[in-house]
Specification:
The chain is an alpha/beta fold and 353 residues long. Helix content is 34%, strand content 19%. The protein folds into two domains: 59 residues, DNA polymerase, domain 1 (Orthogonal Bundle); 245 residues, Aldolase class I (TIM Barrel), CATH 3.20.20.70. The strands form three sheets. A ten-stranded mixed beta sheet has the order 3-4-5-6-9-10-11-12-13-14, with helices on one face. A two-stranded parallel ribbon has the order 1-2. Strands 7-8 form a two-stranded antiparallel sheet. Helix 1 crosses helix 2, helix 5 crosses helix 6 and helix 11 packs parallel to helix 12. The chain binds S-adenosyl-L-homocysteine and iron/sulfur cluster.
Length: 353
């Protein structure tokens, strides 16, 4: 019989397992704390569990580990971690230090099905979904690394404060595992990360956005819009042919936002494609009535792409137009571009250098 990876279980599943071993459900909370808070390597380290339970668990279960295969540090302090999974596939996470926060950008899939023309992950095609353990292990491994290394990361925060699901993959295309992982992140027995410090970014899968709203997780939502009309969006984001802009905007307007929260609209600016004042004006119209803030992300180039970054002036004018229409619009400086850790530069199968 194949052993169960304890890191793949939700708290409810862990309760069932401890019950099967003849123990009370509260033991599951203890197991959760050992795994996700104390980050133990070995089932026998759970010293407040009865020896009998530890023995039973040891027979049927194990604990996975994600080792860091490579780490690259950018001039701006961003750190990119490369992980090799048990089947040899590779994923990346990016640690972005701020003055008071440490944000970890994690992956949800190996590759992505959605094939956006400006995204390197999309170019590589889809390989597979990440498991609950693989999503959570990215956080645990980086956390462990921060604690053990003397690495100065220029942040007052000693530990990861924020998690963004903006790495490789479309999180809502791996719905079950991603939601289960978020529940483990926020659980008082799990990683104890406040929901408002977790952001999920999606390219706009309408049914899953609605479903996410119904989960009432109180996490933040970011949507990659990247265009203000269907013609342009169809071209750069094929997902728009399935879920066109007007339906997407309606879904976002109906989304049950946590109190005081706003949806982040991400807009990758690409030269000659979506960077004119006309685009900005159309964007300001379609966003009317939506509680949102806009992140303008100048396109990050990568090898083999025929797209170009916008001119600095165009970005500035675009932003000013949105501000004049009373939107919050921020130009997101890309971090880690020198180590290919910036948005859209993460790829499947990066070689260990
Ligand atoms: N699949 C999700 C999350 C991962 S992509 C999504 O699409 O939202 C995370 C962000 O990186 C998205 O906003 C996407 O539009 C942006 N991005 C992708 N490729 C980029 C590139 N080459 N330059 C700048 N931003 C990019
Ligand atoms: Fe997938 Fe997001 Fe990249 Fe599009 S931008 S290909 S949805 S990861």
């Amino acid at each position: 019989m194949k052993k169960i990876n304890l890191k793949d279980l939700s708290l409810a599943e862990m309760e069932n397992l401890t019950k099967e071993c003849g123990e009370k459900p509260f033991r599951a909370c203890q197991v959760f704390e050992w795994i996700f808070q104390k980050d133990i390597c070995n089932i026998h380290e759970m010293t407040n569990l009865p020896l009998k339970l530890r023995d039973s668990l040891n027979k049927i279960a194990f604990l996975s580990h994600l080792t860091i295969a490579n780490k690259r540090i950018s001039k701006d302090g961003t750190i990119k971690y490369l992980f090799e999974l048990e089947d040899g596939k590779r994923i990346e996470s990016v640690l972005i230090p701020g003055r008071k926060r440490l944000t970890l950008c994690i992956s949800s899939q190996v590759g992505c099905k959605l094939n956006c023309s400006f995204c390197l992950t999309g170019k590589g095609g889809f390989v597979r979904n990440l498991k609950h353990s693989e999503i959570i292990d990215q956080i645990l491994s980086v956390r462990r690394e921060i604690k053990s290394s003397q690495q100065a990361h220029n942040s007052e925060a000693g530990d990861i404060t924020n998690v963004v699901l903006m790495g490789m993959g479309e999180p809502l295309d791996n719905y079950e595992n991603v939601i289960k992982s978020i529940k483990t992140m926020v659980s008082p027995y799990g990683l104890k990360i406040p929901a408002r410090r977790i952001t999920l970014s999606t390219s706009g899968l309408i049914p899953e956005i609605t479903r996410l709203g119904d989960e009432n997780l109180k996490i933040k939502l970011a949507v990659s819009l990247n265009a203000s009309d269907n013609e342009t969006r169809d071209k750069i984001m094929p997902v728009n042919r399935r879920y066109p802009l007007e339906r997407l905007m309606k879904t976002l307007k109906d989304y049950p936002l946590p109190h005081g929260s706003r949806i982040t609209i991400e807009y990758v600016m690409i030269k000659g494609i979506n960077d004119t004042l006309e685009d900005a004006s159309r964007l300001s119209i379609i966003l009317r009535g939506l509680k949102c803030k806009i992140n303008l992300i100048p396109f990050n180039n990568f090898e083999g792409s025929n797209l170009e970054a916008p001119l600095y002036n165009n970005v500035e004018e675009f932003q000013q137009l949105l501000i004049s229409k009373h939107y919050t619009a921020i130009v997101r400086k890309s971090k880690g571009a020198d180590i290919c850790a910036a948005c859209g530069q993460l790829r499947t199968g990066s070689r260990v250098k």
